[in-house]
What we know:
Elements: E1 4-13, E2 16-26, E3 31-35, H1 42-49, E4 57-62, E5 75-78, H2 90-100, H3 106-115, H4 129-141, E6 147-151, H5 159-172, E7 178-183, H6 186-189, E8 195-200, E9 203-209, H7 210-216, H8 221-228
Parallel strand pairs: 3-7, 3-8, 5-6, 6-7
Antiparallel strand pairs: 1-2, 1-4, 8-9
Amino acid sequence: MSILECKDLSKNYGHAPALDHVSFTVEPGHIVGLLGPNGSGKTTLIKLANGLLTPSEGSITICGMAPGKNTCAAVSYLPERTAIPTWMSAAQLLDFYGDFYADFRRDAAEEMLHHLNIQPKQRIKQMSKGTREKVQLIMVMSRAAKLYLLDEPIGGVDPATRDYILSTIIGNYNPEGAVVISTHLIADVEKVLDEVVFINQGRLVLRSSVDEIREEKGMSVDALFREVFKC
């Protein structure tokens, strides 16, 4: 069974279409790049998959179920902006995630926090912006989820932090699950992707494996992206 399936998925805001009859699937064990310019519909699709929005037409399913209460346990979501409680300490955040999510792997989270030299008693609000983003990602990736939805996980961080974030994604996702990374920073994430989905102005432009792009088109994903979306 597909982890994520979109069938003629559309979402309108008033009369303006944010997604226009998008169809694709995401299979277990794959890291998929949801790629497109700013304003192309990437965040809308991520929010639909997380049950934060409802489709105007068509359908979206997670492990065969419509997003909602029944899929919360299957989805681990990283929003575009930091959303962890800043008044908590790192230790309190571990307790919070452990209480809230049955699939939370506390030992994995503690190991990554230790690697970053983050003290358990340090409060989130005392951390730098980059460190907060790392901590939030660690919490998200320390779940044994079926689907990890990561909205612009490397958007505002320095290159060294990007490398840490990408290695964390590769090394910690449930191999029976799948990862969808929404981003416009193609060159940075290309090395971790198995497949790509290009969307523009709410429409599916291309769906392909990364290997097919390199072998058949003789170019990188970043080069193809620049060609497809050039002004």
